[in-house]
Amino acid sequence: MGLSKLKGGRIINVASNKVPRIVGKQGSMVSMIKDATKCNISVGQNGLVWINGTPDGELLAVKAIRKIEEESHLSGLTDRVKEFLDKNKAKAQ
């Protein structure tokens, strides 16, 4: 149940210990990225992240995930990621 082939998109690899930070509380962080980029995003517990959307949306999602990965140890990350997405969203659409 719930399994299917992933068609299209791109797969990126992140450190598996960063996955909870990428997902956020109750999926808030990944939902914010999905809404801003209009991409489908699936985050695996093993650190594989599948992103499918427009090329510009995918690129913005990858940049946002890399930003989360680099700054996961700092407080106020959600606000910084939101600001980053708002600033770069117009370019992706």
Order of helices and strands: EHHEEHH
Quaternary structure annotation: single chain
The Cα radius of gyration reads 13 Å
**Biggest sheet details:** 3 strands, antiparallel
Mean pLDDT value = 91
Distance from first to last alpha carbon:
33 Å
Unreliable residue runs: none
Strand content: 5-15%
Determine the number of helices (DSSP H or I, runs of at least 4 residues).
Answer: 4
Number of strands: 3
Helix share, percent: 40-55%
- Sheet with the most strands: spatial strand order: 1-3-2
Provide the structure class. Answer: alpha+beta
What does the overall shape look like? globular
Describe what is shown at a glance:
With 93 residues, the protein is α+β, with helices and mostly antiparallel strands. It is built from 4 helices and 3 strands; from the N terminus they run βααββαα. It has a 3-stranded antiparallel beta sheet with strand order 1-3-2.
Q: Notable features of this structure?
A:
93 residues, alpha+beta
Q: Mind explaining what this structure looks like?
A:
This protein is an alpha+beta fold and 93 residues long. It has four helices and three strands, in the order βααββαα. It has helices at residues 19-23, 28-37, 55-71, 77-92; strands spanning 10-13, 40-43, 48-52. A three-stranded antiparallel sheet has the order 1-3-2. The longest helix is centred in the C-terminal third of the chain and has 17 residues, at 55-71. The model has no long low-confidence stretch (mean pLDDT 91).
